[in-house]
Amino acid sequence: MTKSEDSPFAKYDRLRKKIDKIGKSMEKVHGQHLTCKKGCDLCCMSISVFPIEFYAIKAELDLSNLSELPLPGNDIDCRYLVDHNCAIYPSRPVICRTHGLPLLYMSFDADDYELSCCELNFTDFDFDDFNEENTFPMDRINSQLYAINKEFVATYEGGKYYETDRISLAELV
Description:
By secondary structure, the chain is α+β, with helices and mostly antiparallel strands. Helices cover about 35% and strands about 10% of the residues.
């Protein structure tokens, strides 16, 4: 996505670039433990996203091509997964950019960190070897995404959305 600095999506674009940069560094560190690759779609399911993500993705896609995609046979599978490939891959949302990597979250009681990663990855890895330097900082990323979305919805279409609203990604078309 190449957007000008005055675009309503400029901050979101910078965040996605930051996420992709961190993701590439995590892939270098953990490549031998990652089974994620083109054609792997265990994590591809119908999701909802913040309005900032929805409208940024919508602005950069050719929706006429997407409307011709076959519909999934259920409400669980992602609308844009076709023959085990993502039809919106370059524009995919944050959750799709980070899934599979070792994601670090603060626990609910805020006294420790919790780790999340795809069940197919890190099958022969000692989880005690994870630390803040070799995991993806999801709390910081999610906080930044929330703040960017909050600013976006405050000005988009006269406050049509609240900062906590989500939109089904399937509604792009």
